[in-house]
Design brief:
about 75% helix; about 475 residues; Amino acid/polyamine transporter I; mainly alpha
């Protein structure tokens, strides 16, 4: 079988639909929501709703840019085209890095889920076994990846819908657990009100909330492997608000109606804990299986995203050429091997930190900060596009609503999140990672540009293009008056 130089368009509508759903449901919800609930109480409902609304507009900006030029294979491409080669280098490598970090967080979480059944099994053994399984799965065709994610996402959806229905049934029937816990709607406000810890509690819960929504933008990395991006991408983005209301807000409301938020442990999955608390041990084991499949799906998506991002970086001459080569199955296998190798570092964290949850919080905090950078760069590219290509924006078939206001609202929200990260010693450490990472990228980019005549040509061409776009924008606005 001959090797191809182009990715295969093997993902169809149902794959994109379920991968988009999978991107909205991950370990941040299944595992991290326990920590967030303990910090914010029922106020987590507002946090999820506001964060979801902000990120919906970020996805709308991304969608308009990707559909503006179908030659864009991801948001890294439009970042480079609109903001310049430096932006493409920083965004691409940061997205690659953040998915390595996020996948490590997922692996750490999975070891915690497995210890629910096998408390004496060393965490590193389950981590290594899972990583080897994911390596094997990702070396298959992209269609096989899509099928795997499709069925794993269905498991997530069925489990969450089932949990919501069961929770509502328990509340309606007035279920009382063996421990005396009464399932009722008033549990939402009977233990200190909706905001028992005030604004400080809401701020403390923001970090894990951001991580919970991380991965939503993965649909923007699939443009090169989708069969009909002009239909699939808008459809997937349009459904984000409803998914947030059902899978995040709806699920959390039901959890806190069945189990008072004061009884939810910050150190374990509240989904498993809910069934254990009400005396349904077998159901708790079933839910544990579901959250393991969810975290496995997220890790799988992480390996997919890192390999495709590295492939794109190689094609843009931002990474070694070896990562731009495809296997006989049209898979960037070099990036897959590198990603899974780095994710093995999860086993080191598991053996050097005091608890699984502390390791998870450290890694998820780092991921949250870098995802904020990625989303901010998408918005900066969008603002530059609106300013320099006003005609394209005015004629767009998928124009972002409230485009003159929402990017700045999102920036303010992201600034609040960064401020919130400084309030806790556990999350403050993660703030030091970003400048170190940028310093490393800056050194690598400086070395690259000073050695590469091709890179100097790219920069010069970009500057000429920006000047031409600004002149054309002035002429267009003058004609439009």
């Amino acid at each position: 079988m001959e090797k191809s130089s182009e990715l295969e368009r093997g993902l169809n509508q149902r794959h994109i639909e379920m991968i988009a759903i999978g991107g909205c449901i991950g370990t941040g919800l299944f595992m991290g929501s326990g920590k967030t609930i303990s910090l914010a109480g029922p106020g987590i409902i507002f946090i999820y709703a506001i964060t979801g609304l902000i990120l919906y507009f970020v996805m709308r900006a991304m969608g308009e840019l990707l559909l503006h030029n179908l030659s864009y294979k991801s948001f890294v491409d439009f970042s480079e085209d609109i903001l310049g080669p430096t932006a493409g280098f920083f965004v691409g490598w940061s997205y690659w890095f953040v998915w390595i970090v996020a996948a490590i967080a997922e692996i750490i979480a999975i070891t915690g889920y497995i210890s629910f059944w096998f408390p004496d099994l060393p965490n590193w053994i389950s981590a290594v076994g899972l990583i080897l399984l994911l390596l094997t799965l990702n070396l298959l065709t992209v269609k096989a990846f899509g099928e795997l994610e499709f069925w794993m996402a269905i498991i997530k959806v069925v489990a969450i819908v089932g949990l919501i229905v069961l929770g509502l049934y328990l509340c309606v029937t007035g279920f009382v657990s063996p421990g005396g816990v009464h399932a009722k709607v008033s549990n939402l406000w009977s233990y200190g009100g909706f905001m028992p810890h005030g604004v400080s509690g809401l701020l403390a819960g923001l970090q894990m909330t951001i991580f919970a929504f991380a991965g939503m933008e993965i649909i923007g990395t699939m443009m090169a492997e989708t069969k009909n991006p002009k239909v699939m991408l808008p459809d997937a983005i349009h459904k984000i608000p409803m998914r947030i209301m059902i899978f995040y807000v709806g699920t959390i409301i039901v959890l806190m109606m069945v189990t008072p938020w004061t009884d939810i442990s910050p150190n374990e999955s509240p989904f498993v804990g809910m069934f254990s608390l009400i005396g349904m041990a077998s159901a708790a084991s079933l839910v544990n299986l579901v959250v393991i499949s969810s975290a496995t799906s997220s890790s799988n998506s992480g390996i997919y995203a890192t390999s495709r991002m590295l492939y794109g970086l190689a094609k843009q001459h931002h990474a070694p050429a070896v990562f731009g080569k495809l296997s006989a199955f049209k898979i960037p296998s070099g990036g897959i091997f590198l990603g899974t190798g780095l994710i093995l570092s999860a086993t080191v964290l598991l053996t050097t930190t005091q608890s699984m949850m502390s390791a998870f919080e450290i890694v998820s905090s780092v991921a949250a900060i870098i995802f904020i950078f990625i989303w901010s760069m998408i918005l900066l590219a969008y603002l530059a596009y609106c300013r320099r290509l006003p005609q394209a924006h005015d004629e767009s078939e998928y124009k972002m609503p409230l485009s003159k206001v929402m990017p700045y609202v999102a920036f303010i929200f992201f600034a609040i999140v960064l401020y919130a990260l400084t309030l806790s010693e556990d999350t403050r450490v993660a703030l030091y990672v970003l400048p170190i990472w940028f310093a490393l990228l800056g050194v690598l980019y400086w070395l690259k540009t000073h050695r590469s005549a091709h890179q100097k040509t790219l920069v010069a061409n970009f500057r000429e293009k920006v000047i031409a776009q600004k002149v054309a924008a002035k002429e267009y606005r003058a004609r439009s008056r």
